[in-house]
Specification:
Elements lengths: L2 H15 L3 H23 L2 H18 L9 H20 L24 H12 L2 H12 L4 H8 L3 H26 L1
Helix pairs in contact: 1-2, 2-3, 2-4, 3-4, 6-8, 7-8
Length: 184
């Protein structure tokens, strides 16, 4: 996500904290699809995912005053959505923790669309990565966490997170380029 887009999301959250309901609508218009994709990837049920997103907006409105101005607003929102979806699963007693391996179909704004061949290839390549590399890629590119956010969430030092991301990216490039060579 571009820096100006992040700044815009952060401003929406700050306006929500001041009680501007239009900022909630603007937040939905800008990242509502991504929020739904995160919830759907965990819940695998469209109706429950929509309910989780709605509950997430209530939590965002309630806790917006706690948002720290110079942090990653998208990551903050996505963490709320993820935790809300996990709460739904716990209430349903389907799981106690989510398996990151099952959360890679988040790149689409509408989780109901058919996946492209490239998305399927990427998911297969991600599945071949070691667990820690998959986890940091999930946080970095699917939840839009910063390296600092990932380190805080996982308890892994920032330098290790950076190395894991770099290694995972190199491995993915290699796997995907090897795949392209096979089709030529």
């Amino acid at each position: 996500m571009q820096e100006d887009e992040l700044r815009k999301i952060n401003n929406f959250i700050l306006y929500i904290a001041k009680g501007h309901s239009q900022a909630l609508e603007a937040l939905y218009e800008n990242i509502g699809g991504r929020m739904l994709a995160v919830a759907f990837s965990i819940l695998r049920n469209r109706q429950m995912a929509e309910d989780a997103v709605q509950d997430s907006f209530l939590k965002i409105a309630k806790n917006a005053s706690r948002f720290e101005r110079n942090t990653n607003g998208v990551a903050w929102v996505m963490r709320i959505v993820r935790n809300t979806a996990l709460d739904y699963l716990k209430r349903e007693r389907k799981i106690s923790t989510v398996n990151v391996d099952e959360c890679y179909d988040l790149g689409r704004d509408d989780p109901m669309l058919e996946r492209s061949e490239n998305a399927v290839l990427l998911e297969r390549a991600l599945a071949r990565l070691p667990e820690q590399e998959r986890k940091v890629i999930y946080y970095r590119y699917y939840l839009d966490f910063t390296v600092r956010d990932i380190a805080k969430e996982t308890g892994i030092p920032k330098s290790t997170v950076m190395r894991l991301i770099r290694t995972a990216e190199e491995n993915l490039k290699k796997m995907l380029s090897d795949r392209d060579k096979d089709t030529v």
